[in-house]
Amino acid sequence: MEGLTSPILTVEQAVERSSFFEIPSFINPQPAGDILKGMDEADQKIMSAEIRLGSQYHFCLETQTAMAVPEEDNCMVVYSSTQCPETAHQNLAKCLGLPEHNIRVITRRVGGGFGGKALKAMTVATACALAAYKLRRPVRIYNNRKTDMLTAGGRHPMKITYSVGFKNDGKVTALHLDILINGGMDADVSPMIPNDLVGALKKYDWGALSFDVKVCKTNQSSRTAMSPPGEVQGTYIAEAVIENVASHLKMDVDSVRSRNLHSFESLCCFYKGCAGEPEELTLPSLWDKVAQSSGYYRRTETIKEFNQVNKWHKRGISRIPLVHKVSVRATPGKVSILSDGSVSVEVGGIELGQGLWTKAKRMAAFGLSSIRCEGSSDLLRKVRVVQTDSLSLTQGGWTAGSTTSESSCAAVKLCCDVLVERLIPLKERLEQQMGPAGMHSVNLSASCYFVPDFDAMNYLIYGAAVSEVEINILTGETTILQSDIIYDC
């Protein structure tokens, strides 16, 4: 048709036509060190090496689903399988043209999240609510598997071009990357991917690190969060660079990895503001410990012998480090003690199989244990965590980043502390009078908003793993024979 431009289907075409999504300044990753100085110090260089990464798709046990029920006063209740009820709440109000107090989003549980039930759950929830709003009757929508796969989005494909300088002993002195990320037709979570990618990439001491990251807007389906978003690609890129350097120098790749592990000084340079104290850098000890516990060196020799006598099956083993930046977010909580002594708990986070409700339940039982009266044994059985409700508990945020369980537990503990403070002065008198606390005008419900301390909301954790893999040369079939993981939580 006249006037239509050709579609943008590749990241190269996006660059030619300057089609990009903007990366907000507050999550734009920062370089480290002096790249020119690092390149000058290098004994050898590899220039303009290329890596291409494809996509992956979510395959959750439960497809995207929602149910909307109109209520009186022009209100709408939406049951949505979403990782972020608060965001769904806001989008539903905009879609229906209603004030937010007319919308209630309830999430009982999510059948597999991994980022796929974050923003991608919104389209099903809003379509369901719109139909219910127009028809004035309950509507339920669930995707069949084919539709779900078509709309899932999946992991971001990327094209990476890098240049690396290094010493003859394998120590990298400088790494520069040009990264093109295919975000698809809609921003979704794409602007946050560069920060997560570079965060994972910084797990090695590159001497100096610089990059040019572009999030490309194309005419393909929009990509979304896929656990862990950006970090899978960042880790792969880091290991590909290390492997290339080792191959170029004809060195054992494990020795090159060991040579480029962080010192505390380099950690402070690469992870400014969250490196912590020197004694918190446990990666070197984990690195040695996993080699010892897994029998890494012995198994390396065994694998060499196996590969010499087997033509069509080959084995490999590798030891990989991990540095992960944890970000703790503010989270609400609510604890109510009912007339029979049972306890109701509400949290902003949702249950998607990570045990959030179990942890919150145990925290409530622990937090209230100091006011347990005679005859109220097994307090844990008296605690129930109810569904996440965006109207009952506001500012719930996202359940993502592997920290929502801990934040929710912290919020529950704050609520329990308030209740304990209210009830302890009355406990002795009530036991004598055998009268319930409610009759003495004590508020038996507490709502709190846990806000992490600014200095502690971002910190680093470390891990190391040894994995042994066997490959069938004829078919390409890969089997993980053994994985040993040590993680400092």
What does this structure look like?
- There is one protein chain.
- This protein is of the alpha+beta class.
- The chain is 32% helix and 26% strand.
- It contains 13 helices and 17 strands.
- Helix 12 packs parallel to helix 13 (404-433).
- The longest helix has 30 residues, at 404-433.
- The radius of gyration is 27 Å and the shape is globular.
The largest sheet has its strands arranged as 1-9-8-7-2
- Tally of separate helices: 13
Q: What is the chains' assembly state? A: single chain
Q: State the end-to-end distance.
A: 58 Å
- What share of the residues lie within helices? 25-40%
Summarize the structure.
The protein is an alpha+beta fold.
Topology, element by element:
Blueprint: H1 11-16, E1 20-21, H2 35-41, E2 44-53, E3 65-71, E4 75-80, H3 85-96, E5 103-107, H4 122-135, E6 139-142, H5 145-151, E7 158-166, E8 172-184, H6 193-201, E9 209-217, H7 231-249, H8 253-259, H9 264-270, H10 283-294, H11 296-309, E10 313-327, E11 331-337, E12 343-347, H12 356-367, E13 383-385, E14 388-389, H13 404-433, E15 445-450, E16 458-472, E17 478-488
Parallel strand pairs: 4-5, 8-9, 12-13
Antiparallel strand pairs: 1-9, 2-7, 3-4, 3-6, 5-14, 7-8, 10-16, 11-12, 11-15, 16-17
